[in-house]
Amino acid sequence: MDKDKRSFRNKAKGPLGNKTKRSFRRRFPPIQSGDQIDYRNVSLIRRFISEQGKILSRRVTKLTLKQQRFITSAIKQARILSFLPFVQNTEKRFEFERARSVAKTTSSRSRTPAKTTSSRSRTPWYRKNSTES
């Protein structure tokens, strides 16, 4: 074979001209073969939960379908048995709500209560016509 033909096989032609193919680095699996997916293994389970407490998707965690199912059921069992909280970072939420309530009470405007009485009579529709007969 000519030298030119061999070099052509190792190159991919793109919109910007010839460029060499990249070799992708193989990523390590997020769950090792010795790790056991269980609701008691909290250190493993916490890696697959977001900061808000949501279960991360398979695309993000790079798990297989079977592993994702086991992780999801383990997280749900751990939440029920109170190994894991259902919602995380609640301190920030409570601080925000507390700041809002303080701002509402210190506001200079006062709201007038909504009108609760109505000018219409409160008799049901089926009793209105009963007096005629």
Automatic annotation (TrEMBL):
<protein>
    <recommendedName>
        <fullName>Small ribosomal subunit protein bS18c</fullName>
    </recommendedName>
</protein>
<comment type="similarity">
    <text>Belongs to the bacterial ribosomal protein bS18 family.</text>
</comment>
<dbReference type="GO" id="GO:0006412">
    <property type="term" value="P:translation"/>
</dbReference>
<keyword id="KW-0699">rRNA-binding</keyword>
<dbReference type="InterPro" id="IPR018275">
    <property type="entry name" value="Ribosomal_bS18_CS"/>
</dbReference>
<dbReference type="Pfam" id="PF01084">
    <property type="entry name" value="Ribosomal_S18"/>
</dbReference>
<keyword id="KW-0150">Chloroplast</keyword>
<dbReference type="GO" id="GO:0009507">
    <property type="term" value="C:chloroplast"/>
</dbReference>
<keyword id="KW-0934">Plastid</keyword>
<feature type="region of interest" description="Disordered">
    <location>
        <begin position="1"/>
        <end position="32"/>
    </location>
</feature>
<feature type="region of interest" description="Disordered">
    <location>
        <begin position="97"/>
        <end position="133"/>
    </location>
</feature>
<keyword id="KW-0687">Ribonucleoprotein</keyword>
<keyword id="KW-0689">Ribosomal protein</keyword>
<dbReference type="GO" id="GO:0003735">
    <property type="term" value="F:structural constituent of ribosome"/>
</dbReference>
<dbReference type="InterPro" id="IPR001648">
    <property type="entry name" value="Ribosomal_bS18"/>
</dbReference>
<dbReference type="InterPro" id="IPR036870">
    <property type="entry name" value="Ribosomal_bS18_sf"/>
</dbReference>
<dbReference type="GO" id="GO:0005763">
    <property type="term" value="C:mitochondrial small ribosomal subunit"/>
</dbReference>
<feature type="compositionally biased region" description="Polar residues">
    <location>
        <begin position="103"/>
        <end position="122"/>
    </location>
</feature>
<dbReference type="GO" id="GO:0070181">
    <property type="term" value="F:small ribosomal subunit rRNA binding"/>
</dbReference>
<comment type="subunit">
    <text>Part of the 30S ribosomal subunit.</text>
</comment>
<keyword id="KW-0694">RNA-binding</keyword>
<feature type="compositionally biased region" description="Basic residues">
    <location>
        <begin position="19"/>
        <end position="28"/>
    </location>
</feature>
